[in-house]
Amino acid sequence: MNRGRAARIFRGIAQPMRRAHPVELAERIELNGGLDRPVRALSEAVREALPRGPLKNLLHGVPVGHPVHAPLTDLPIGAWSSAAVLDLLPGTEKASRVLIAAGLAGAVPTALTGIADWSALHREQQRVGLIHAIGTGTASILYAASLLARVRGHHLTGKALGFTGLTALFAGGYLGGHLAFRQAAGANHAESIAHLVPLGWHDLCQMEDLPNGWPVHHTLGYIDLFVLRLDDDVRVLADRCAHLAGPLHQGRMVRVDDDVCVVCPWHGSTFRVADGSVVDGPATGRQPAFDTRVLENGTVQVRPI
Ligand code: FES
């Protein structure tokens, strides 16, 4: 990155620092288009290094049904915060060293899961995620230097590096919170149909109006639905993808192990249309599915499962 570009990015981020509220800094990062070139280059590199498959699904948290990056951050945050407390007490050098080493070990899977999730986010989320990663990466480097200084017997230097690392960690962690709670990265975006659709059967459409083998969009009250006719059968899922609300009815239909699946057009999450279960991430949560039946007069009815 050339100097002028780096200066523009920094000016874009630093401008709101004159204001008091940190969320304004986070919002400024969201809108900073100067970050897009490195974001694009890094996302492409991550997508090439981490192709779709079992490892990427594991990093997203598909096998456990939740994103795993956020819970893993407890490891370095917990270990390094505890080390900071011990650093204020006499005679705790060895325990502090162990905690810092444990935090560094925990930072590895935390970073890998974060990178996998980051590669499949919206542009604004990726901008914040990049600065979040720079903050937490800086913290890791400072803690590694702190550990090295302590091992060499330079305890005061080690403590100073540790407290500086903790500051970088909290700054990066604040942006992680902004990503999760303000920008809803990692949250489930599929409608919670249990409270939006009353129990029981609901008329949806006529069977003759559904193209065979081609998904279409319908609405049921407040809910957008993905509707797929397969000969005499009809499959219905919530249309907004659990990952970041992409429109599933615009997705590609594929077969995985003989199951008919839909691939989200935005980041490629793949769901079985029979029950909404996840085949491939980044989505980790099952897509809400509906029971269906066809009445004698050809009316298709649905009810929440
Ligand atoms: S919105 Fe991201 S995979 Fe569907």
Structure description:
The chain has 10 helices and 10 strands. It has 305 residues and is of the alpha+beta class. Strands 1-10-9-4-3-2 form a 6-stranded antiparallel β-sheet. Helix 2 packs across helix 8 (123-151), helix 7 (93-118) runs antiparallel to helix 8 (123-151) and helix 8 runs antiparallel to helix 9 (155-182). The longest helix is centred in the middle third of the chain and has 29 residues, at 123-151. The structure holds FE2/S2 (inorganic) cluster (FES). FE2/S2 (inorganic) cluster (FES) binds at residues 241, 243-246, 264, 266-269, 282-283.
Helix/strand layout:
Elements: H1 3-14, H2 22-30, H3 36-49, H4 54-60, H5 69-72, H6 74-87, H7 93-118, H8 123-151, H9 155-182, H10 193-196, E1 202-206, E2 216-220, E3 223-230, E4 233-238, E5 252-256, E6 259-263, E7 270-272, E8 278-280, E9 289-294, E10 299-304
Helix pairs in contact: 2-8, 4-7, 6-7, 6-9, 7-8, 8-9
Question: What structural class should be given to the helix and strand makeup?
Answer: alpha+beta
Order of helices and strands: HHHHHHHHHHEEEEEEEEEE
| Low-confidence blocks of residues | none
Number of strands: 10
**Domains, number:** 2
Amount of beta strand: 15-25%
What are the distinct ligands in this entry? Answer: FE2/S2 (inorganic) cluster
Main beta sheet: strand number and arrangement? Answer: 6 strands, antiparallel
The geometry reads as: elongated
Helix coverage percent: 40-55%
Oligomer: single chain
Mean pLDDT: 92
Strand order of the largest sheet: 1-10-9-4-3-2
